[in-house]
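User: Sequence recovery, please. Input:
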């Protein structure tokens, strides 16, 4: 059986949870088995996961699981997976998924692949998945030979498909170990799509000259309904908050559209954005390395190009 860990935030499912269930359902079809979902802590609308392909939803409602602790989550998820007879466990490749999948794999003696971006293939009994490697410059195919398999699914690799029926919810008990981490305060950025889930991203770098100029980036992002991101030096110098930093040492994203404004395209930056489906680069230096990775490029001064692009977007939106 395939078991999906369906991630919630404030008791509601994230888009990546629906992606993971859709992926799990399709994986189960390939393997000729069922797909179930697992939800931890206080949450609502669990039966909805059935629409995305879960035949059953396991729920451990213990309020101690409302705060995330990867050791505690790994213990509970492994226990439920064992009881349910699941041998493929799928996480979203989020901060939570990344820090928990490896622990679950160790507990279940499972082969694990993190950040997969396509459905598995099974040929002659060989279970293979694909992921991006070398900063997104190549794909690697991994064969997982162990009986138990743990995967984490890169965001925006599959579109959620809700065509099924609500699923029955089964409340299950599991031993919840004492957490070693105490959460004293939680500050969440509200009202925007978090970067790992964003389909449209407008990102800017040191070419912006200073934080006081970011209004043109925010305006463009608002018109597009995009999430804002930035290069590392921009976050390091405090021009923008750290949660916007993308790249090798920041968040790795895979949006449908990544607009890079005043960013040179250093390899460490590209490592986190190379998997974007379409890349648009705006830079005044035609030799900027980012143009090599771009699908579309504008050579020009961002302070002229961005406001004009925003105006063109507004006009387009008004007309369509
Ligand atoms: C171990 C390590 C890890 C790193 N991890 C990351 C990471 O995760 N993410 C990351 O981003 N970086 C990372 N870096 C830093 C990376 O190497 C680059 O230094 C950084 O990405 C450069 O940021 P930038 O492109 O914003 O700035 P710059 O390199 O200064 O580029 C600014 C660009 O803006 C353009 N520009 C200037 N003015 C204008 C204008 N008016 N109109 C249009 N274009 C203009 C310039 O032509 C230039 O291309 C890492 C470095 C190391 C060593």
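Assistant: Recovered sequence (320 residues):
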């Amino acid at each position: 059986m395939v078991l999906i860990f369906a991630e919630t935030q404030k008791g509601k499912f994230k888009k990546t949870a629906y992606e993971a269930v859709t992926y799990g359902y399709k994986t189960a079809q390939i393997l000729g088995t069922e797909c179930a979902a697992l939800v931890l802590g206080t949450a609502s609308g669990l039966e909805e996961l059935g629409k995305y392909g879960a035949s059953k939803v396991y729920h451990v409602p213990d309020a101690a699981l409302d705060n995330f602790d990867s050791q505690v989550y790994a213990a509970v998820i492994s226990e439920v997976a064992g009881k349910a007879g699941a041998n493929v466990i799928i996480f979203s490749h989020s901060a939570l998924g990344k820090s928990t999948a490896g622990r679950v794999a160790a507990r279940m003696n499972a082969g694990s692949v993190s950040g997969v971006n396509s459905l598995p293939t099974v040929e002659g009994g060989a279970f293979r998945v694909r992921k991006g490697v070398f900063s997104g410059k190549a794909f690697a195919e991994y064969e997982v030979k162990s009986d138990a398999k743990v995967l984490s699914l890169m965001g925006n690799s599959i579109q959620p498909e809700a065509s099924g029926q609500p699923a029955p919810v089964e409340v299950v008990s599991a031993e919840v170990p004492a957490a070693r981490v105490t959460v004293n305060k939680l500050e969440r950025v509200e009202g925007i799509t978090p970067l790992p889930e964003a389909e449209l991203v407008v990102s800017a770098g040191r070419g912006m000259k200073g934080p006081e100029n970011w209004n043109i980036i925010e305006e463009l992002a608002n018109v597009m309904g995009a999430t804002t991101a930035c290069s590392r030096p921009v976050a390091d110098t405090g021009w923008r908050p750290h949660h916007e930093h993308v790249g090798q040492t920041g968040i790795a994203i895979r949006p449908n559209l990544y607009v890079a404004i005043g960013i040179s395209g250093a390899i460490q930056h590209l490592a986190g954005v190379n998997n974007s489906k379409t890349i648009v680069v705006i830079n005044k230096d035609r030799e900027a390395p980012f143009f090599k990775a771009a699908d579309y490029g504008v050579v020009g001064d961002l302070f002229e190009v961005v406001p004009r692009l925003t105006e063109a977007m507004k006009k387009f939106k008004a007309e369509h």
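The radius of gyration is 21 Å.
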